[in-house]
Amino acid sequence: MPARTWLPPGPFDLHRTLGVLQRGPGDPAFAVRGGELWRACRTPQGPGTLRLAARPSAGGIEAEAWGPGADWLLDRLPELLGAGDDPAEFTARHRIVHEARRRHPGVRLARTGLVLESLIPSILEQKVTSDEAYRAWRLLLCRHGEAAPGPWDRMRVMPDPRGWALIPSWEWHRAGVDGKRSATILRAVRAARRMEEAARMDLADATRRLTALPGIGPWTAAETLQRTLGAPDAITVGDLHLPKIIGYALTGRRGTTDEQMLELLAPYEGQRHRAARLILLSGRVPPRRAPRFPVGDIARL
């Protein structure tokens, strides 16, 4: 049960920095408990559980870890918490972005250094509602993952590549995952070593590595590399909601397309993902005009 303390170089918001790693409420691999943040993952050294707590009196982040992956997690703690991220390189070009940055000075871009951990749930989120994808992630981890090391026995570590490959077809169906997405996940875990190499590449090379696999497009690659690399320019293209939110926040107009969103974000070239995150934190979203998209359940078919 090794422990470390990390002293951030400036304002730091633990929960908003790492909250992007949580895959919906009830994520078996991520939890907030009594103000502490818990994360269970599969490292190159094996399963590990990380507990993080902000200690304002000590001016730092206290960390404890359990399992074979404990040392790996603690050695990379500064990187995970955005020590390699430099928000000072960012210049706000819109009032709403400037205000969001002023209100949230402690948000950094986390870098996990793990590809499959972010790639698999991103594949699950392809072409379905978030609720459907979160449900699939919960069911698959609870049924096929393993108990996370450490004191909290309700957390789960996702399967290793062989474990994913051994999930039978009816279990994917029971989790509501169609054949196209499950086939993409199986291709990814069979190429696990090649996928994980992307964690040591720059954004352009990592994107090419991921999108070379059938079933992984720019949307999935960006959603993965935002977390794996903490890449400030990994803007998501092909999302149902993001262009509309960006367009409404910056112009007040509805119906913004991907192409129009990229034009609006052109002044932030090199920092477009950071700009999008700040816009999302502003809370300015277009009013809803239609009911939510109905949640499907192929498990009942």
UniProtKB/TrEMBL annotation:
Keywords: DNA damage, DNA repair
InterPro entries cross-referenced by the UniProt entry: Alkylbase_DNA_Glycosylase/TA, DNA_glycosylase
Protein's recorded name: DNA-3-methyladenine glycosylase 2 family protein
